[in-house]
């Protein structure tokens, strides 16, 4: 019988300054898996450019996997054996190519198998995490309350998850007030989650994808963090919230920006859906943080997050705004500036006057960036219109002397 308990902790690094400050350094995920009498503990530390995962068995054997994003190298370390194995991006690409080739050959062979034999093969592969396309999904997990437990300082209701009568997981839940959320904050977070699931599901269906893939999974993790930020910001309207907690969650979401893109490029899973998913999560996080800043500096700061949504709304009436823009490094710099300034303002790292000045500079740079792009799109639309008019005009008769 397999039971899984997961505890997610967001670690923070406190700045050495007189003003209250907190900055996210990474995410620590601790997972404890019990299978009968055997217990395995896994700890994963995720930072912007690296990740370390440590596995400790009940017998005390320890192994670690370290990924260096800057060098694009993965190292597997055996503490007991005092050895390590190193894999580069080229090694992973070769392994993936071999696995894809083997899977393609297996699919071709299974086409000619009798139905019963094919069903047995599909069941075996599904049990090993390699289900064939078109196979039916497994039974859903059903949850039942079995008592109470304590996680950290919170007393929670404990639920047992079963699948086909077998226990597969445990979940602990607490009331929103115990976590510091108001009903409005929880409702905002829940509404965000529902919209996220609906839009992401529709996007997957439209793209013909049946799974998120590793890169989109990272983006989904960021999206979950943004949901927490949303709940905290809405809660802050009527109830004080923990600034270190808000900064930690928002900081990790900002710090992980770019990691999903690196994962997509390394695994060869770059998709239009992934790029759009990443962009929308970034835009919504900036909007939520600008709303939080607006409660302190005035609602003009909401323009930092609303600019993109106003641009999209304007494109419904002015289709020429939907044309592709040439890539510009300055656009990325301006986008990064918004996140940095809002993170500093949220963390109260800047004096009041300096914080307001930084917001003004960020808004001015964003106005300049959107204005320049809008002007470029307008001029490009005029050029296209003139070209269409020229090519659609009836031919003129030749002059004969």
Key terms:
10 strands, 10 helices, alpha+beta, Four Helix Bundle (Hemerythrin (Met), subunit A), single chain, seven-stranded antiparallel sheet, 401 residues, globular
What's the short version?
The chain has 401 residues and is an alpha+beta fold. It contains ten helices and ten strands. It is globular.
How would the blueprint of this fold be written?
Layout: E1 2-13, E2 23-35, E3 38-46, E4 50-56, E5 62-68, E6 73-78, E7 83-88, H1 89-111, H2 115-127, E8 142-151, E9 154-163, E10 166-173, H3 183-207, H4 213-236, H5 243-255, H6 259-267, H7 272-297, H8 303-317, H9 329-346, H10 352-392
Antiparallel strand pairs: 1-2, 2-3, 3-4, 4-5, 5-6, 6-7, 8-9, 9-10
Helix pairs in contact: 3-4, 4-5, 4-6, 4-7, 7-8, 7-9, 8-10, 9-10
The computed structural class is alpha+beta
Multimeric status of the protein: single chain
Taken in chain order, the helices and strands follow as: EEEEEEEHHEEEHHHHHHHH
How many structural domains are formed by the residues? 2
Instruction: Report strand order across the widest sheet.
Output: 1-2-3-4-5-6-7
Q: Briefly, what CATH class of the largest domain? A: Mainly Alpha
The averaged pLDDT comes out at 76
Q: Output the number of helix runs.
A: 10
Unreliable spans are: 1-25, 127-135
The largest sheet is:
7 strands, antiparallel
What is the CATH third-level topology name of the largest domain? Answer: Four Helix Bundle (Hemerythrin (Met), subunit A)
From the spread of the alpha carbons, the general shape counts as: globular
What portion of residues belong to β-strands? Answer: 15-25%
């Amino acid at each position: 019988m397999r039971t899984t308990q997961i505890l997610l902790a967001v670690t923070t690094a406190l700045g050495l300054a007189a003003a209250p400050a907190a900055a996210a350094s990474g995410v620590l995920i601790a997972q404890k898996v019990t299978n009968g009498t055997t217990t395995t503990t896994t700890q994963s530390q995720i930072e912007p450019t690296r990740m370390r995962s440590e596995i400790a068995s009940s017998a005390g054997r320890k192994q670690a996997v370290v990924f260096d994003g800057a060098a694009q190298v993965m190292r597997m370390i055996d503490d007991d054996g005092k050895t390590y194995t190193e894999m580069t991006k080229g090694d992973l690409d070769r392994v993936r190519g071999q696995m894809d080739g083997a899977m393609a050959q297996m699919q071709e062979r299974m086409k000619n198998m009798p139905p019963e034999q094919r069903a047995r093969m599909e069941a075996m592969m599904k049990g090993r995490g390699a289900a064939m396309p078109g196979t039916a999904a497994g039974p859903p997990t059903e949850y039942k309350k079995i008592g109470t437990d304590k996680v950290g300082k919170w007393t929670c209701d404990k639920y047992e998850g079963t699948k086909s009568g077998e226990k597969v997981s445990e979940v602990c839940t607490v009331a929103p007030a115990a976590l510091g959320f108001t009903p409005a904050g929880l409702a905002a977070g829940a509404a965000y989650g529902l919209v996220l699931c609906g839009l992401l599901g529709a996007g997957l269906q439209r793209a013909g994808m049946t799974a998120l893939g590793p890169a989109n999974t990272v983006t989904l993790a960021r999206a979950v963090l943004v949901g927490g930020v949303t709940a905290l910001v809405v809660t802050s309207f009527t109830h004080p919230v923990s600034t270190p907690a808000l900064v930690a969650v928002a900081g990790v979401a900002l710090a992980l920006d770019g990691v999903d893109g690196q994962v997509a490029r390394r695994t060869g899973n770059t998709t239009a859906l992934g790029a759009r998913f990443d962009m929308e999560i970034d835009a919504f996080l900036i909007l939520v943080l600008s709303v939080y800043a607006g409660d302190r500096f005035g609602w003009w700061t909401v323009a930092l997050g609303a600019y993109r949504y106003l641009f999209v709304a304007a494109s419904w009436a002015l289709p020429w705004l939907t044309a592709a823009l040439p890539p510009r490094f300055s656009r990325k710099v301006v986008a990064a500036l918004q996140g940095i300034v809002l993170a500093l303002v949220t963390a109260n790292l800047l004096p009041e006057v300096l914080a307001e000045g930084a917001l003004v500079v960020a808004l001015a740079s964003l106005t300049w960036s959107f204005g320049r792009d809008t002007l470029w799109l307008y001029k490009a639309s005029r050029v296209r219109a003139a070209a269409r008019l020229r090519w659609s005009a009836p031919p003129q008769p030749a002059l004969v002397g």
